[in-house]
Amino acid sequence: MSSNIIGSLIWIIFIFLSLFTHMIIKSLSGEVDFVITLFSRFVYSLPILFILAYVARKSFLFQVNNWKNIALRSFFGFITMIMVFSSLQLIPIGLTTALAQSSAIYVTLLSPLVLGEKIGLVRWSAVIFGLIGVFLMINPVSIINEKSELSALGVYLAFGSALTHAALALILRRIGKTEHPATTALIHNLLTSLIIACTIIFFGTKFYGKTGDYGIEIFITPNNTLYTLIALGMIGSFVQYLMAQSYKYAEATILVTLRYLAIPLATLFGFIIWNEIPTYNQVIGGLVVIGSCLLITYREIKKK
Fold it and tell me: How many domains does the chain have?
């Protein structure tokens, strides 16, 4: 079996596990305070990430060459996750996934400013068509006229997550040249866990997002919901690990193409579990976004 096939299989498992975490988060909406879900996603991933980092780096597991880049990675990673998790509580999982996957469009837009890259006519055309696709999915006119059945806040959060994920992707390009992925993942989750823990201490668990039947007391009186939160964090750690492992085997261009499998899969799961039916605009817009992102990927391959 070729290394590209192995890497692709790992990537497909990564996609399914990532979608599974999103489905857990959506299913916990209204059952657990959002801040508790967010905290669990990070803190329960730490043991496995610590083991993986120690196996990979031994006593150098916390060695970092550029703390500024690590801080930026943690900031944009945290903001992106807040936006994605929040939007999952408000709009269909398929729409959240499609808008989040449009980040390749904004990476291309930001590349000249951040990385000094030149963008040709074909990629500019792909960006323009991609933005049209995003416009169709969001349908801002109906939101402004208050004729949309979608939550305006949920749509804006999903759209914002694509922008912050684009910034994160550009930062990861820099970090990948100087830092070990196991260390950056461990430090990111550790810092974020500490920030959320301090926030809970000062503000409680009901100041942001949907509130649920359980707050901080879920950690004192364990039940099946707590075990679900623990599973969420553990699966999240494997998501990060598998993503890094897939790049060790397969070419990045193959994996970037496969990532768009997440959109139809999320839409399918949303229909089966929550009876979420995408509108005509969302389907057409999603297809336009996928096509635009694939064209951007093709031009990246040809350029290199």
Answer: 1
